[in-house]
């Protein structure tokens, strides 16, 4: 994922110290209740669509923007699925980040699923009974996107991974 300009500017001032950043994940469904996934360049694994917000951008706008930028699919955010602070990450260059993820259930409203940026190797729709293997992060979000109810949040304590 290319580093946004505002992060590069912050890094010029603070170096590699930990940043606390807002991120979003989009669990995108089509009219056949399939889920949109991308196979990531950095891991080679199938994953949900996501990214970080730009300054002044609302989280739902970020989700919709990231889906369009990464997959060519136009979507609308329907509801918040969960909010979770993730474990800190240290990137190979030494930069440290901790993300708070706001996950949205989204609905596709247009566009054609395709690789639309340099972050994805493939983009595809998957039926619920034919999902590729997802990590705990993705499984937790799909589980809560399928449940009707209130948004889930992490109780006090260390992050859970299913």
Description:
With 162 residues, this protein is α+β, with helices and mostly antiparallel strands. It has helices at 5-14, 59-71, 136-146; strands at 19-29, 35-40, 46-47, 49-52, 73-85, 89-90, 96-111, 120-126, 152-153. It has one domain: Alpha-Beta Complex (Nucleoside Triphosphate Pyrophosphohydrolase). Helix content is 21%, strand content 39%. The strands form two sheets. Strands 1, 4, 5, 6, 7 and 9 form a six-stranded mixed sheet that branches. Strands 3-2-8 form a three-stranded antiparallel sheet, with no helix packed on it. It is globular, with a radius of gyration of 15 Å. The two termini are 25 Å apart. The model has no long low-confidence stretch (mean pLDDT 93).
């Amino acid at each position: 994922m290319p580093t946004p300009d505002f992060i590069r500017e912050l890094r010029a001032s603070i170096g590699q110290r930990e940043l606390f950043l807002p991120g979003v994940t989009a669990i995108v469904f089509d009219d056949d209740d399939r889920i949109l996934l991308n196979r990531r360049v950095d891991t080679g694994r199938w994953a949900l669509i996501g990214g970080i917000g730009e300054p002044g951008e609302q989280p739902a706008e970020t989700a919709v923007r990231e889906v369009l930028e990464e997959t060519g699919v136009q979507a609308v955010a329907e509801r918040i699925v969960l909010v979770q602070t993730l474990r800190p990450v240290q990137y190979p260059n030494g930069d440290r980040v901790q993300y708070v993820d706001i996950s949205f259930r989204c609905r596709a409203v247009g566009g054609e699923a395709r690789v639309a940026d340099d972050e994805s190797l493939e983009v595809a729709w998957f039926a619920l009974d034919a999902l590729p293997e997802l990590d705990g992060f993705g499984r937790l979000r799909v589980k809560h996107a399928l449940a009707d109810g209130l948004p889930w949040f992490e109780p006090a304590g260390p992050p859970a991974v299913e």
